[in-house]
Input
Amino acid sequence: MIWLALGLGVAVNLLMLTGPVYMLQVYDRVLSSGSIATLTALFVIMVALYGFLAIYDFLRVRVLSRAGYRMEEICGPAAFAQGLQKPEPTAEAEDSLQTLTDVQTVRSFLCSPAMPGLLDLPWVPLFTLLLFFIHPWLGMLTLAGAAVTCGLAIANAWATSGGVGRGRLHEGRSRNFGAEVFRNSDLVGAMALGNRVAARWRHLNNQGLLVIQASSDTADAFTVISRAFRMFLQSALLTLSAYLVLKQELSAGMIMASSVIAGRALAPVDQAIGNWRAVVQARGAWTRLRVPLSALAGVAPVALPPPKDGLIVAGLGKLTMAAPNGARTRAPILEDITFALKPGDALGIIGTSASGKSTLGRLLVGADRPEFGSVRLGGATPAQWSASAIVQGQPSIIGYLPQTVRMMPGTLRDNICGFDPAARDENIIAAATTAGVHEMALQLPQGYGTPLGMGQDLLSGGQLQRIGLARALYGSPRFLVLDEPDAHLDPAGELALVQAIARARQDGTIVILITHRQGTLAVVNHVLVLRQGRIHQIGPREEVLAGPRVVPPPVISSQERSA
Output
C-alpha cells in the first residue's frame, strides 16, 4: 500500500504545479493580450486540475489510513504473542504492553498528516531543479535554504532523540506504579497510605514530565526557527525574482510562480520538522518492533499428538538477574534439578520459603525459561505443547495453577475455559465440579456469566483459588502443576483438591504439587525436598516423610538426557 501511496504522490505533486503554471499564464499571456476567452479557458482547466488534485490527495490519505489499519491487523496478534513470551520484566521493558503500544504508535503515524509530508520529500530535488531551469540564482538560493532547513532537522533529531527515550521510560514507570496502586486500593485505604503513594507517583511522574518538557521545548524551538526561516526564504526568493525581472532576466509572471514552487519545494522538510516528535516516536516504535516480529514471522508450529511418555527433567537450572542502576548480578535460584515421572505419578515439592519451589513450577510449565537443562513431556518442550494447542485450537496439554491467582477480564465461564471459543458447557461444568466450584458459581449473581477480572473483590481468596484450579483442570491436561493450591482453602476445599488430584492421576495425568501442608501430600506418591535451590531429598512419599535419609535422584540414561 505504501507503493500505491507513492504512486498517488506522483500525481499529487505534479498537480501541485497547477498554481504556479496558472499564475505564469495569467501574467504573461492574459494580461499582455487582454483576452477574456483565454482567461476563461485557463480558469476551467485550473478548476479541473484542482479537482483531480483533491481526488488523488484524498485517495493517498485513504490508502495510508488503510495501510495503518492493515499493519495493526497483521502485526497486532504477533505483538500480543510476543508480549506474552517476555521471560521477566527488566528496566528496559517495564511495561508489558509496550509492544502493543508500539504497534498502535506506528499505525497512528501512518494515518497522521506527517506521513504524506515524508512521502513528498523525494520531490524536493525535483522542485529545486525546476527553479534552476527558471533561473540558476533562484535554484541556488532554494538549495541553500533547503540545506539550512535539513540542517535544522538533523540538529532537531540529535537534540531530542535521547530525551524521547528517557521520557518514555519515566512515563512507563509512573504508569505502572499507578496501575499497581489502583489494583491495591483497598490496602492503601486501610493503611492510610494515600498521601505517601501519591507523593511517590508525583515524584515519578514529575521526572518524566521534566524530561519530556525539556525535549518538547527543544523540538518547539527548532520548529519555530524552521518556520520563520522558511517564511524569510520565500520573501528572499520574491525579492530576488523581482530583481531579476528588473534586470529583464525573468518575466513578471515568474515572480509569483517561482515563489510558489520554492514554497512547495521546502514544504515537506518544514512539515517533517513540525511533526518531528511523531517521526521520532514512530521510528523508535518500529525499531523495537522489528526484532520481535521478525523472530515470530518464521514460526510454523506443528500439531502434536497427546503425549504417551512421562516427564523428564534433566539438569534444570535458573539464575536470578537483577539490574540495579544498570549493573547485572547473577546468583543461582535452582541448580541441577533432575527427576523423571511416569503417567499417573504425582510429585509433591516441599521446602522452606525462597528455596525455589515456585520458580521450579514456572520452569516446568514454560512460564519461565531455564538457563540450564531441559524439561521434556513426551519428548517435547512446554513451548512446543503450547504451540501445538494453538494449532489444534484445543485446550493445552499443560494445566497450571500459579501461586498468586488472578482472573482475566471476562466472565467466570471465560476464565475457566481460557476464552476457548469452541468450549462446551458440559466440559466447563465438569472442570468446575471437579474443582468444587460449580455450587459456588450457581450462587453468584449471574452464575457462570458473572464478570470477573475487574471486580474480584466479590470473591474470596479461596474462591479465586478454586476457580484457578478449575481453569487448570479444564480440558483434562496431561501435565498438571499446582503451586500451593491449598493456601486459602477450607477443609471442604482441601478435600475437593485432593479428590481432583486423585481423579487426574487415575486419568494418567502427571501432577506436580507444590505445598507447605503435609496433609495434602497424602495424594502424591513421590516427594521432592528443595533446599537452597538444590534437591535435598527425593523419593517415595513414605520414605521421604519418614526420615531425613537422602535418596539420590533417579538415574537418567544418556538417551533420555539428549531427548
